Amino acid sequence: MFGFLQSKRSLLESGLLKGATDSHSHILFGLDDGVLTAEDSLKIMEFYEQAGLDTLWLTPHTMEDVPNTTEGIRARFEEFKAMYKGPIKLELASEYMIDTLFEKRLAEGDLLMHGEDTVLVETSTQFPPINLWEVLDNMLKAGYRPLVAHPERYHYMQKDDYVRLHDMGCYMQLNLPSLTGVYGETVALKAQELLKKGWYCMTGSDCHRYHAIMKQYGAKVLKKDVLALLEDIIHG
């Protein structure tokens, strides 16, 4: 009688975070709109240890409004590594807003890479840069692979835009909280659709605050079929 109903679980309950990689976070303190203090950063690390996370990418913003320098980010990363004594492997990159500053850094080759040839990029969630496709194409021509952060959150993007991103060879990164509905139902449905297509290559928390990630990862809202689709990418 009730076979059509699926029980729902949280990310924490699912066990998927054990051995997982978080490819996008704002936990490196005092650099952007993310975590403000070292104490809060370490508190989040403790939470991630309990969840069983294996690897964490620290990816502070770089944009015209937050003009972090490569040297400044690296210095804060070394400071944090000296503080954190736990088992989670720490990796460093930056999340670059596609704007004039990014185009300058791209031309200079002054980028913190997300892996060997990959660069984590984002846009406004509401409006694309006028030259979005030109910039992505220029990145590919220069030998960089665009890793588009949380594409499901871009309200201006339609089906054809996601097809274009996929076909031109861009990677896509899923925000796990998108699946929990934290950004709204439309974003959650987009995330599920892209997940079903197999177009995400990695996942991230986009964590900015301890209490937010606790709530998002503890929300019992994910269906079994969605959790099964995550298994292939969450440990990448």
Give the helices and strands, then pairings.
Blueprint: E1 8-9, H1 11-14, E2 21-22, H2 38-51, E3 55-58, E4 61-62, H3 70-83, E5 89-92, E6 95-97, H4 100-108, E7 118-122, H5 132-141, E8 145-149, H6 159-168, E9 171-175, H7 176-179, H8 185-197, E10 202-204, H9 210-218, E11 222-223, H10 224-230
Parallel strand pairs: 2-3, 3-5, 4-6, 6-7, 7-8, 8-9, 9-10
Antiparallel strand pairs: 1-11
Main β-sheet, spatial strand arrangement: 4-6-7-8-9-10
Proportion of residues in extended strands: 15-25%
What is the C-alpha radius of gyration, as a whole number of Å? Answer: 17 Å
> Which residues sit in consecutive blocks of at least 5 with pLDDT less than 50?
none
Task: Describe this structure as you would to a colleague.
With 236 residues, the protein is of the alpha/beta class. The protein has a single domain, classed as TIM Barrel (Alpha-Beta Barrel), CATH 3.20.20.140. Helix content is 40%, strand content 16%. The protein is built from 10 helices and 11 strands. The chain has helices at 11-14, 38-51, 70-83, 100-108, 132-141, 159-168, 176-179, 185-197, 210-218, 224-230, and strands at 8-9, 21-22, 55-58, 61-62, 89-92, 95-97, 118-122, 145-149, 171-175, 202-204, 222-223. The strands form 3 sheets. It has a 6-stranded parallel sheet. Strands 2-3-5 form a 3-stranded parallel sheet, with helices on one face. A two-stranded antiparallel ribbon has the order 1-11. The longest helix is centred in the first third of the chain and has 14 residues, at 38-51. It starts with 7 loop residues before the first strand and ends in a 6-residue tail after the last helix. The relative contact order is 0.17. The mean pLDDT is 96.
